[in-house]
Each structure stands twice: as C-alpha cells, then as structure tokens.
Amino acid sequence: MNITLKNKDDKYSIEDFCNIIKKLRAPDGCIWDREQTHQSIRRDFLEECYEAIEAIDLDNFIMLREELGDVLLQVVFHSVIEEEKGNFTFSDVIDDVATKMVVRHPHVFGEVKVSNIDELLTNWDNIKKVQKGQQSDKELIASISKAMPALMRAQKVQKKTVKLGKCIKTEDISGCNQNLDAESIGKMLFSIVNLARENGIDAEEALAKYTDNFIETEFSE
Questions:
Q1: Does the pLDDT value for residue 96 go beyond 90?
Q2: Using an 8 Å Cβ cutoff, are 184 and 192 in contact?
C-alpha cells in the first residue's frame, strides 16, 4: 500500500482515502489509530456531525466542505474496523445505501406514481416498514433511534404517532394558550429545564424515559 503526499494538481480518490485509513490502522501505522474502537470514537462521530450542521446553519460552504470530510472520515474509519473483523467493507456500505435509495424511490426508478409529497412520504414509510420487517405501529415508532437527543426524538415520535391517526393529549400547563410563538415555547422549555435542575432531575433523561413510557402505553398490544 503505497500512499504518498499528492501533487498540487492531483486529487486523492475514495479508494486512496480508504487505503490511508487502513494504513493508519496497520501494525506499522499510527499508534493512536490502531487503538481506536467504535466506542472510543463514538463521541467524535457525533461532534463531527454537529459541526457539519453548524456549517449548514452558517451557510458556510468552505466550512461545510471540511466538515463533510470529517464526517466521511468517521464513516470510513468505522467501516475499516468492521472490515478487519470480516463483517463488511466500505464498499458494502455504499452498495447498501445505493440499493436503499433505488428501492425507496419507486416513483423515480420504478413504475409507482405519486401525486404529492404526502403520498411520497407515506410510500417511503411503508417500504421502510416492510424492509425492516416491522409488523406493528409500535415497532415502527420504537425504531426511532434512542441515541437521538431526547427533545428531537420526542418530536419525531409525536409526529409519526399523529401521522398514524392517534391523538396526543397536551398536559395542562399553567398560562398556556393556543397562540404561542417560538419564543414563548422556548421560554417554557427553558423554564422546565430549570425546574428539573432545581429538583435534581436530568431533563434530557427524564424526557427520554417519558417518551419510552409513552410508546409502551400508547402502542400496547
């Protein structure tokens, strides 16, 4: 595996990049890179994703180019770890996601007709449900990743719950009305976090657990 510093006008390929990571993980590679596991660089992956999102929020294409590269580094690194175990390769990852895109867009790559976004998204969810072998609405809702920030996950759980035709009861909140704006909601959430802190409760963990309980109760067999 012969990797050298490229000339100014040349560009590394994705194959070159994969070989660079493999070299770093090799016995004669980098001590630090050789020692890393999925768990040890888990937080790094999360941080790189947040930094890419920040670049999008800032509309900074120079920053975005760099941060997308850092996200790709994480994807390739994790893939190489699994390749070393004989489980899958980065090429398998690419093939899987490409296949997923073709299968989940039959209105583009097949004969299915959709007339609007709602039909498209419903079709996407149905295909996803079949692919993942989900037999019930509960399995569909429970598949929403628990690794997501609790507030983001709760909002996604609620959105999909309502889409399934279920109503979600809004708890009585003192001073609440139907004409709240974003600032008012933000203030209420901030106050709730402060209330949790004052009572020694982790607001993130509390919401995560309540969302789990909601799924178990609302979608009980």
A1: yes
A2: no
